[in-house]
Design goal:
The structure is a single chain. Helices cover 71% and strands 3% of the residues. The protein has 201 residues and is an all-alpha fold. The chain has one domain. Strands 1-2 form a two-stranded antiparallel ribbon. The longest helix has 33 residues.
């Protein structure tokens, strides 16, 4: 049996584990910026599972304008390490948003640019998923509250609020999630591929 037999499941495991932890760190950073309720049980879980490496990094990386810069540095570092591991497994390309990044032949500087593209893509995806979840929950359990709904509303609000100012509800129907979702998808198509292209130069 070829050694390539194990590459696909190993790649899946690496992507899943790294992406999950990067997602938690990025969520922590975004929720801090949005001043979310950190007494929320979900917030407390995110804080507990991400605190250990951040405590170490904060000794060397100061905050900028009151923001936790170490969270961003840790995200970029983990994405970079993930790409290095995939390259060691002879994975030639990865998908970042709608763009294909040739990590196999990229320079180390190019890999870092891909990391930025991946982080931007993940950030936009978080807001996109938050809006979709909020819409679904509004259909399933309108008026009810739980910790997840609170955090989802906090994440979706900064995107939906400006859209609602431009596109008010029509006949009691709120169309802002549709337009906000479309805007985020267009933003990913316009922002991520050029960054990937710069990394490929």
């Amino acid at each position: 049996m070829s050694s390539n037999y194990l590459i696909s499941p190993l790649t899946l495991i690496i992507n899943a584990l790294f992406d999950l932890y990067i997602l938690l760190i990025l969520l922590r950073f975004i929720l801090q910026i949005l001043r979310a309720d950190f007494y929320n049980p979900v917030s407390q879980f995110i804080v507990k599972v991400t605190s250990a490496p951040l405590k170490i990094l904060r000794r060397f990386i100061p905050s900028i304008s009151g923001q936790d810069t170490s969270s961003v540095v840790l995200c970029l570092g983990l994405i970079y390490f993930k790409f290095i591991l995939l390259r060691l497994l002879d994975i030639p390309v990865v998908s970042i948003g709608s763009a294909i990044a040739p990590i196999g032949g990229a320079s180390y500087a190019g890999l870092f640019v891909y990391c930025i593209a991946d982080l931007v893509s993940l950030t936009l995806t978080i807001f996109l998923i938050a809006i979709i979840i909020q819409v679904i929950l509004s259909w399933i359990s309108p008026g009810q509250y739980n910790p997840i709904i609170g955090l989802v509303s906090t994440l979706a609000a900064p995107v939906l609020r400006p859209v609602r100012k431009i596109i008010p509800a029509i006949g009691g129907l709120d169309l802002s999630p549709i337009f906000a979702t479309l805007m985020i998808m267009v933003a990913k198509l316009l922002i991520v591929p050029p960054i990937v292209y710069i990394g490929s130069l």
